[in-house]
Design goal:
Blueprint lengths: L2 H5 L5 H16 L10 H19 L2 E3 L4 E3 L3 H7 L5 H17 L6 H7 L15 H12 L8
Antiparallel strand pairs: 1-2
Length: 149
């Protein structure tokens, strides 16, 4: 339903970006605070965001060749000033982790986030837990060695 709005030449680009931010992004990022995304998931989200931005901004006229062409990812990022989709996920995840950490140890959500499961784990590399993702996010921000709680 929204595809026709994003490709319409009658709507201004800033209105299309507002549609993307208010309608599309919340649907895509529903529950992202509890995700433990892999590199494959990150790649898929970046591809999705670039596809939507290409629909919003449309093709670009190249004066040298005098033809229409797709815009590069760098050109899209220059035109779209807000942070990319993965930074939004990381900021939401850090905000949610802080909220849960302030709840206290009695609450079930905090026990699930901080607790360690009992029993044997399956063979292979263990998946990243929310606690590990929070530590990695803090290291990217520049808070190395700090206890995130």
């Amino acid at each position: 339903m929204v595809q026709n709005l994003l490709t319409s030449s009658l709507l201004p680009k800033n209105f299309k970006i507002k549609i993307y931010i208010t309608i599309i992004l919340p649907v895509v990022l529903y529950g992202c605070e509890t995700w433990s995304p892999t590199l494959r998931d990150e790649h898929k989200l970046r591809v999705f965001e670039n596809r939507v931005l290409r629909r919003i901004f449309g093709p670009k006229r190249d004066e040298v060749i005098d033809e229409w062409r797709k815009q590069d990812n760098e050109e899209l990022n220059d035109m779209h000033s807000s942070p990319n989709i993965f930074r939004v996920i990381k900021s939401r995840r850090m905000r949610w982790a802080g909220y849960v950490a302030r709840m206290g140890e009695r609450r079930v959500v905090c026990r699930v986030l901080v607790g360690k499961p009992e029993g044997k784990r399956p063979l292979g590399r263990p998946r990243l837990r929310l606690e590990c993702n929070n530590k990695l996010d803090l290291e990217e921000v520049g808070c190395r060695g700090m206890d995130w709680i």
